[in-house]
Design brief:
Blueprint (H helix, E strand, L loop, with lengths): L6 H26 L2 H16 L8 H4 L9 H7 L7 E4 L3 E4 H13 L1 H6 L12 H18 L1 H10 L3 H13 L1
Antiparallel strand pairs: 1-2
Helix pairs in contact: 1-2, 1-4, 1-7, 4-5
């Protein structure tokens, strides 16, 4: 059903969830000492939230601001922690030991989680856990819809789908 929506709605939804996701990259860029990417993340979030109407538009990309998604799992990797074993969590999907610890830690580092899950006020904004899980759920649906053809092709052309997905996941997390 999601792929049947008009392209501007899908693009706006994708931009909005990506813009909120940038908030998690900001503290992780600091922890990794990656200050150039920190500038891109802060600049992108500021431009897209203000000029881009809460992130539904992406004018930051047009002026050269391209933040990289960073999370605690990647930060732990930057500090030398190996990925550990690979496994698949129901509903959440593929992960490693390091990234599963990182997923939990993300909720403590992510400013969006602070104002939603923990219902704290940050710069005059607050929310609730429904806001957090709604945005994360829409982001997951958007990701799946954007990659549906890739998943179909992988499933059709793979001798061992599990091994193929594992390889793709581990390469993406390096």
């Amino acid at each position: 059903g999601y792929n049947k929506l008009p392209k501007p709605i899908k693009t706006g939804t994708s931009n909005f969830t990506s813009n909120i996701g940038v908030l998690l990259s900001i503290p992780n860029n600091i922890l990794q000492g990656n200050f150039k990417q920190l500038g891109h993340s802060v600049g992108s979030f500021a431009v897209n939230t203000s000029i881009g109407i809460f992130g539904f538009l992406n004018p930051a990309e047009k002026i050269g601001l391209k933040p990289h998604k960073e999370d605690v799992g990647q930060t732990l990797g930057a500090y030398g922690f190996g990925p550990g074993c690979y496994f698949v969590l129901p509903v959440l999907g593929p992960t490693t030991f390091r990234d599963s610890i990182g997923m939990i830690a993300d909720t403590f580092v992510d400013p969006f989680a602070h104002i939603t899950i923990r219902e704290k006020e940050l710069l005059g904004s607050s929310g609730n856990s429904l806001d957090y899980y709604s945005v994360k759920g829409v982001g997951a649906v958007d990701f799946r819809a954007a990659n549906d053809k890739n998943f179909e092709n992988l499933e059709k052309n793979s001798i061992d789908l599990y091994s193929s997905l594992k390889s793709i996941y581990l390469q993406d997390r390096e």
